[in-house]
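Researcher: Structure for this, please.
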Amino acid sequence: MFDDPLNPPVEITRDHAETLLHEWLGERVRCTGLRSLSGGCCYTVREVLFDHPRSPVVLKASHTRDDDGLRHQFRTLGFFEQHTSFPMPRPFHCDLSCGSVPFAFIVMERLPGSNLGEASAWMTPDDRVRVERRIAEAVSELHDHTGPHFGSIHASAGRTRWIDYFRPKLEENFT
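Model: Predicted structure, token format:
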């Protein structure tokens, strides 16, 4: 699912945000801001600011009820958080019913900082090298795991896409 003219972005209002925040937190809070975030090639992604110590959070939304991709992403975030030291936003809430709001969504922690595209505007070349090195080390750690959770892609496996190989391995651990 991509947010393009065939699949327009999900419209998320402050009322929607307050409804889903109430569902997640169990208390009413006031949404003080919504900001589009980059990186949502498959989903509409917003930073949600609200009157609460857990503010801000990231909201990913889909037009599709029971969106399998959102479900999988929510579970994967939780799995990686438990089994790696990879910097990972904590998954807080998932509702794929399109019941309380007219879209399926996940709520996750908003990690501090800027995305690399924004940060590149002020980073020196040495800063960029340091950041890219940290990213490479974290990704390398994910690929160093062996055993039931992770592995490496081999041509003999008959799969060429990462998701075709790793998604079934991750899902073995979700049940």
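Researcher: Any notable elements?
Model: The mean pLDDT is 82. Residues 125-144 form the longest helix (20 residues).
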